[in-house]
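We now fix the convention by which a protein and its fold are recorded. These numbers are not coordinates but entries in a learned vocabulary of local backbone shapes. A record is reproduced here so that you can trace the correspondence yourselves:
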Amino acid sequence: MKHLMILILSVVGLLLPASAFADTYHIDGQLADKASHKIYLSRYTDKAFVIQDSAIVKDGSFSFSGTLSTPLLYGLSTERNSSSPQTFFLENSPVKVSLDEQNATIRVSGSQTDSLYRKELPDVEKKGYRLDSLIAVHPKSVVPAYFLIHNFAWSLDLHQLQVLRSAFSSELDRTLYLKQIDTLIISLKKVDIGQRAPDFTLRDVQNRKVSLSDFRGKYVLVEFWASWCGDCRREMPIIKTIHAKYKDLAILGVSFDRNRPSWLNAIRQYQLGWTQVSDLKGWGSRLTSLYAVRWIPTAYLISPEGKILYKALTMSGLDQVLESYLKP
């Protein structure tokens, strides 16, 4: 009887489509470079790729197998800690991948989620892209959820983010990207206009402890930046002009650098004559969540009583705001 049952299950397995057993993924990969390599499969979490698995490439072929609770964005690279691997959406299905690192291209078949991702990817950065329309058509897909947290969340205010979040199916509530959006919404509520600015303490360039509360009684401009951030560097002249113009304004620079010499060199190079602090943890700093920072430069204007008055994602226009509170 036991052997009969095995035979029946084997026959059923031949007759059922592969999707009936889609509780695992299998990547059948081809690498254009036929040389011996180790290839790394990394999962995109939040602003970073984390290695999940590795495989040996033999005669240009490699494979991975595993299981996912939901489709997620992954990357492939022969560089162990690559910050920009070739990305694709992986789901529990047989997936074929062709990777050409020299030409920075990847072709994927077998993943319906990736098909939607690849279809939308060329347009998502274009001005006027309607993410709300994509969500309306695909409310149960993680692809628009990924685009929301990765491409759009940094530029949206609390209300805009809440409206888009509410359009997703409740089936996605426990998925990674919607959890990240929900966490961001909670953080944004805590640093909304009118809220008390969360206090923090970091070390300055002389390794002395500096707290935001040290500036109580003054208007404070808290500017989040980093030496590696091109937009931050381009807007430094605006901050310097503001620093020279408003003598009663305290400026507190909070760097998301990891490398101390790079941080100090940028301060010297741009002659930044105001207080600078950093925990040298990059985007891993707890201040990214404490102040809901997803883009730099970001600046908060804080009242002498410690209330948030204004938030800016660019320094242009900040002078006019300051004029309404301070006299030059």
Summary: The two ends are 92 Å apart (CA to CA). The CA atoms of residues 26 and 94 lie 5 Å apart. Residues 230-245 form the longest helix (16 residues).
